[in-house]
Amino acid sequence: MKRISALILLNLAVSLLLSGCWSRRELNDLAIAVAAGVDKVGDRYRLSVQVAIPGQVASKKAGSSQAPATLYTAEGDTLFEAARRMTQISPRKIYFPHLRVFLIGESMARQGIAEILDFLLRDHEFRTDFFLVVTRGVTAEETLKIMTPLETIPANKLFNSLQTAAKAWSPSKAVTLDELINDLIKEGKHPVLTGLEISGDRNIGQTKENILNIYTPSQLQYSGLAVFKLDKLIGWLDEKDSRGYRFLIGEVKSSVGFERCKNQGKVVLEILKTNTKTKGKIVDSRPEMDIKVYVEANVASVECRGLDLTKPETITELETRMEEKVTGLLESVIAKVQKEYKVDIFGFGEVLRRSHPRVWAKMKEDWNEYYFPNLKTHIQVDYTIRRNGTTGNSFLNELKE
Amino acid sequence: MPEVKISLRQLSILTALYTIGSAILIIPSSVANIAKQDAWIAALAGLGFGLLILALHHQLSRMYPGTNLLQMSEKLLGKWVGKTVNLLFLVTLFLGGPVTVLYDIGSFMIIQILPETPIQAILLLFGAIIVLGIRLGIEVLARSAELLFPWFLLLFLSMTVLLLSIVKWERAMPILEHGTGPIFPAVLSFLSIAYLPHIVLLMFYPSSVARPQDAPKAVYIGSLLGGGVLIIVIALTILVLGPDLAAKSAYPSYMLAQKINIGNFLQRIEAIMAVMWFITLFFRITLYMYAIVTGISQLFNIKNYQPLVLPIGWIMVSLAVFIYPNIPFKHDWDKRIWTPYIIIISIGLPLLLLGVHGVRNMFSKSPGKTS
């Protein structure tokens, strides 16, 4: 008797312990969302979710008839409601932890994005490691319909290309949710997000035709930075200004720059390393910023004649001219933002808060309206050219007509 | 009660795990909420004050080596007053200690990992191993602590190392932006979770330790170790997440683990990191419960505490479901009620006992000897 009851007890215990988790969701029950986009239609949110189709991604065979991902779109008074309404069209519940990019439609960004960010932060399914991007001139929904070559899932293309562009070509900025929220909460810094455009013919882009040939008629392309005043988009920085911006906040890892030669042509320099130090100081009870930028570069190509790279003076002269050029770049973006947008996206206020907390406490109320637009900046660029590639003097010098 | 002894090493490890306990989950946000980027300063100061509190406890334990807290208060305050104080102590500690920590682990699981699982299922399973552990006694617990502690250290150190690459020092700037004003309440909040509950440890040390005279040293070592871990966790949340996000997040340490990403390859390991606080929370609840169960058996002169474990464990699990109606209530409770309460029992009670001891000594030549 005792034996039997012990066995029953053991069985009960085992079935309790081995049945696994309640909230388990098997892989074949998941609709893995890789990209999501939100637009505003009137007062309602329109959520579009790009879901990867695992079978299509895994198969190596070319010419499979189905697209690698599918798009579900639903509207709702709130974002969460829209996400749940999606079950009406999706056979599986959408699973968000593998989200790579979150797109925000431009028109929605102009009205404010803070409300949707709270949902993204609060819901446990969203991690904080996806990139937030503003779609420029188009809705987020339309952007998610474009087919992409090389990376079959468009979301992966968006993620990887933003990551690479931010690293190797400076104007794009990869912003994750926690960074964005930190920028929003911080006094003295306003956020920016990278813009995303559809180039070429959108109608072809949405069809498989887009990736049938070597030439892709329609591409997803990052372009410029969106300037936010708190959570509302107020304008754009073009490519040049975006680079200046990223120089100023010290995020440029690698990039390319050029300088005109005395004759015709250009010298191209590859930036290898940059380092920016911003210090705030108070002069005559007004804030001023000392910005020191250190750039290390290599000569990447010489496209003009008569440049003697064997002489150290040439390098020194080139360095001085590059210093002037970078200084000009930085000054122009600061001036533009100070004049046109009047919001401190560079975090100068934050810098001042760190070094002069008491002064900052007095200035923060009028920072964007008064102090920031009139802020004096002293930019000092230290441009160092280290090496000149695998050749010395350019063979262009020896070309005789 | 069977005579049980644990070694000094085991005492140190138990103390360290007890100190880290639930603090590793909830302390970063509560301290960062008050002290912002200076939370690490508050934690350092908290460590200092914590050692003072421990010194007070040791002072008490040195008077009557071989007796535990409840026996002491019975001896000093007299049988009936002592027993009343002890009963109040045990009941309130039961409600404020193990039940709320169990609630913490339950709500952590359903908020972060298993949102659709009924909380009862999690509490029941967690409660079951706690009951099992206590039934087996302090020796078994101490040995399992010895076994699990290296795993905890391994996870903790790997988390720290993996996060170093995304540390940004300027997040801790400016130091003392709002002056030293907010530091004190932050220290209090730190102490109320990390060090003030150490009074509970007096229930089994020095009486259950092999070399009672060295027990205080072992407790100091364990507390320093635990405090060091907490300071590092708080500093990391500030340096990686920033003070604002650290204060807003419900479980900043879990968010920290989510941030780990080495080359897009070593990532999404937060569930493994969560094992860290399963270990520490287990020992936190178990030591609370052990103290309470042995205390109740003493109170009613029951020789063996083991029959009490299961019923009290049941009560703990069922209470943990509804001890707090909602999360804001819990935060409010921690701030307004738990902190004064734990100050009373952890500083007030020892001071009272020391005072009575002093007064008694004045009247009688021979000080109280061990029973």
TrEMBL record, chain B:
Domain of life: Bacteria
InterPro entries: Spore_GerAB
Pfam family, any one: Spore_permease
First-listed, main subcellular location of the protein, grouped into a coarse class: membrane
Membrane topology: Multi-pass membrane protein
Subcellular location(s) per record: Membrane
UniProtKB keywords: Germination, Membrane, Transmembrane, Transmembrane helix, Transport
TM region(s), chain numbering: 12-33, 39-56, 87-113, 119-138, 147-167, 187-206, 218-241, 271-293, 305-325, 337-359
Similarity remark: Belongs to the amino acid-polyamine-organocation (APC) superfamily. Spore germination protein (SGP) (TC 2.A.3.9) family.
Protein name per Swiss-Prot or TrEMBL: Germination protein
